[in-house]
Amino acid sequence: xxxxxxxxxxxxxxxxxxxxxxxxxxxxxxxxxxxxxxxxxxxxxxxxxxxxxxxxxxxxxxxxxxxxxxxxxxxxxxxxxxxxxxxxxxxxxxxxxxxxxxxxxxxxxxxxxxxxxxxxxxxxxxxxxxxxxxxxxxxxxxxxxxxxxxxxxxxxxxxxxxxxxxxxxxxxxxxxxxxxxxxxxxxxxxxx
Length: 192
What we know:
Keywords: DNA-binding, Transcription, Transcription regulation
Number of strands: 0
Domain HTH tetR-type: 6-66
CATH superfamily: Tetracycline Repressor, domain 2
Protein name: TetR/AcrR family transcriptional regulator
CATH architecture: Orthogonal Bundle
Strand content: under 5%
CATH topology: Tetracycline Repressor, domain 2
Order of helices and strands: HHHHHHHHH
InterPro entries: Homeodomain-like_sf, HTH_TetR, Tet_transcr_reg_TetR-rel_C_sf, TetR_C
Helix content: over 70%
Number of domains: 1
Structural class: mainly alpha
Low-confidence stretches: 1-6
GO molecular function: DNA binding
C-alpha cells in the first residue's frame, strides 16, 4: 500500500511564488516549480492544478500578504501624513532592496494585459493601495497636515504613479540614492 505524503499547500504555493517572482510566468517551467516545491508533476496537477492555476494562487498569495503587511505597518501610526511618509519609505525600501522587484508590477507587464484572471487580482491589489492611501490623504487634509491640494483622489493617484516609475528606474539604473532622493522630494511636495 502506498503511503500518504503530507502536503502543505500553503508552503508549496509560497515556494512556487518565489520561483514565479524570480523568473516570471513565462520563464518558469513546470520542472522549476516541482523542484522548488519538492513534489512531482502528477502531485502538482492532482492537488493544485496546472501552472496557470498555481500562478493565480501565487499572485493572490503575494498581493494578500502585501496588503496585510501594509495594514500592520501603518495601523499604529496616528498621524495620517506620517503614515503616508512611512508607506512611501517602505515602498522605496522594497524597490531598492528586493532582489526580484515587485511581483505585482512584473506581472502587470508580463501577464495582466492578456490574462483576465491575473488582471482582476492586480486590479484588486491596486485598488487596495489606492483606498488605503486615499483614506490617509483625506484624513491628512482634514487635520491640516496636507495643504498642497484639496483633491484627495488626484493627490493619491499622483503618489501611486511614482511607485511604478521608481520600479522601472531602479531595474534599469540600480541607483538607490536617486530613488531615495525622488522619494524625499515627493514627501516634501506633499507636505507643502
